[in-house]
């Protein structure tokens, strides 16, 4: 039939396409492992899986924002843009940790989860904006991609810009609501098993 490969004919795809697919697959696995490593480190730091889940809830915003920016600018998902997503994820996690840490501290001081989340978003507004704006200003020339060589690295800058814009909005607007909902009605005792932690259940003064 027309269009069907003869039975005894075989073919093999050569060139740069197979290594490119393999590298993109490896970067995707690396992105997942990076998020998992961040989750485990946050769980050890906060002594709570809930707070670590709240913190990494901004990760989908980074991926979505980078994808939208790449689509709007006509850029492709390649090695450069993957690296940009990972870079944006690091800055977004730093901002999220800042807000969640401050909110949890206010909650342990006696405020309700909603009040703590609101105060954390307002009080940490300037540091979050300063961090994001500094990164955006540094990546803007790369995202514009002036010149022939600039177009090669433009997807990296565009992925960072899109991911950080979405992550900043998510950190200041969505993250506090998630924190307030997850921590509503939770106690103030620590989840640590260290016997000299005064906030944990088996604290010993000896």
Describe the structure.
- It is a single chain.
- This protein is mostly helical and 206 residues long.
- Helix content is 71%, strand content 0%.
- It has 7 helices and no strands.
- The protein has helices at residues 17-46, 49-55, 59-73, 79-108, 113-123, 125-144, 150-182.
- Helix 3 (59-73) runs antiparallel to helix 7 (150-182).
| Number of DSSP strand runs | 0
Radius of gyration, CA atoms, in whole angstroms: 22 Å
Distance between the termini: 86 Å
Mean pLDDT: 82
One letter per element, helices H and strands E, the order comes to HHHHHHH
Q: What's the number of helices?
A: 7
Give the CA-based shape: elongated
Strand content: under 5%
Largest sheet descriptor:
none
Quaternary organization:
single chain
Primary descriptors:
206 residues, mainly alpha, 0% strand, elongated
Q: How would the blueprint of this fold be written?
A:
Layout: H1 17-46, H2 49-55, H3 59-73, H4 79-108, H5 113-123, H6 125-144, H7 150-182
Helix pairs in contact: 1-2, 1-4, 2-7, 3-4, 3-7, 4-5, 4-6, 4-7, 5-7, 6-7
Short account of what is shown:
The chain has 206 residues and is an all-alpha fold. 71% of the residues lie in helices and 0% in strands. The chain is elongated.
């Amino acid at each position: 039939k027309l269009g069907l490969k003869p039975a005894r004919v075989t073919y093999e795809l050569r060139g740069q396409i197979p290594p490119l697919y393999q590298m993109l697959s490896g970067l995707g696995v690396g992105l997942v492992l990076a998020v998992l490593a961040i989750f485990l480190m946050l769980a050890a730091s906060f002594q709570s899986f809930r707070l670590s889940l709240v913190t990494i809830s901004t990760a989908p915003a980074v991926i979505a924002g980078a994808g939208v920016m790449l689509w709007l600018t006509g850029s492709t998902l390649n090695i450069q843009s993957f690296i940009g997503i990972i870079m944006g994820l690091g800055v977004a996690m730093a901002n999220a940790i800042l807000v969640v840490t401050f909110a949890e501290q206010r909650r342990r001081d006696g405020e309700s989860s909603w009040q703590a989340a609101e105060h954390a978003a307002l009080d940490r507004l300037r540091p979050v904006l300063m961090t994001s704006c500094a990164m955006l200003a540094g990546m803007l020339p790369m995202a514009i991609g002036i010149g022939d060589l600039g177009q090669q690295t433009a997807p990296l800058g565009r992925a960072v810009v899109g991911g950080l814009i979405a992550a900043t909005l998510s950190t200041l607007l969505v993250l506090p609501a998630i924190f307030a909902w997850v921590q509503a009605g939770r106690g103030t005792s620590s989840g640590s098993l260290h016997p000299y932690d005064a906030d944990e259940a088996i604290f010993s003064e000896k």
